[in-house]
Design goal:
The protein is mainly alpha-helical and 243 residues long. It is 86% helix and 0% strand. It is found in: Cell membrane; Membrane.
């Protein structure tokens, strides 16, 4: 009886093994697909291309911002390269009455500050009020030249994020249009479209941050230059009043 029972149970156990095989195969296939997707990843170029045509104006705005930041930085830095001995030298020459030497010293320093002082020297002989007005006018012109195109960075900082959001909204509209057309409302379809369209928002924010930081950085540099020019103008007027 025991031998007969064992013989009857043997086929049942053998049949149980094949029954578990499809489930194991499915699990293995799922794990393999997940591993393959994780290994493949998503490159930066793929993300940029997934952003669509809206990435083109964003890249143009980024290029313009970087160009303005670098160009203005070197221009303002060059404009501020005035020796600490410049104003003491002007004072010494003017005290001696050597106006021609003072003009030559200004010509040797092609900076906004030197051009402003040179304008004042050329107006010597006129009332002090007129000389002061001439110096102030030249100073305003020089500062306006230093601030050239800096306001463009402020504009870019404002429109780049909004342009990125527009790209994302367009992508979301396309996703829901596809859902309404096909009737396929799946998490994979929605998430797959959203993460690619969010690229434009991220790109817009990055461009906006670059432009915003550049705008305030250059503005601080210009403010320092303005402060230095104002001090030099006051010192120049003091020299005229003392003599």
């Amino acid at each position: 009886m025991t031998l007969l029972t064992l013989l009857l149970q043997a086929p049942t156990g053998a049949a149980a093994v094949p029954a578990a095989s499809p489930a194991a195969a499915d699990s293995a296939a799922t794990a393999a697909n997940a591993a393959a997707n994780a290994a493949t990843g998503l490159s930066l170029i793929d993300l940029v291309l997934a952003g669509g045509w809206i990435m083109v104006p964003l890249f143009l705005l980024l290029f313009v911002s970087v160009y303005i930041i670098l160009e203005r930085y070197f221009t303002i830095r060059k404009a501020g390269a005035v020796s600490e001995t410049f104003m003491p030298g002007i004072r010494g020459l003017m005290v001696k009455g050597d106006l021609q030497g003072a003009k030559m010293l200004c010509a040797q320093n092609p900076t906004p500050l030197a051009r402003m002082i040179e304008k004042g020297i050329r107006r010597i002989g006129l009332p002090l009020k007129e000389i002061e007005t001439s110096v102030e006018n030249v100073g305003k012109i020089e500062i306006a030249r230093l601030e050239k195109n800096i306001n463009v960075l402020g504009i870019v900082a404002g429109i780049a994020p909004m342009l990125g959001f527009v790209g994302t909204i367009i992508g979301v509209i396309k996703i829901f249009y596809a859902i309404s057309s096909t009737g396929d409302f799946g998490i994979a379809q929605i998430s797959g479209g959203l993460y690619t369209k969010m690229v434009t928002s991220a790109a817009g924010l990055i461009v906006g941050i670059v432009a915003h930081v550049g705008y305030h950085w250059l503005s601080i540099m210009v403010e320092r230059m303005v402060f230095r020019m104002e001090n030099s103008a006051i010192e120049f007027m003091d020299i005229l009043q003392d003599n």
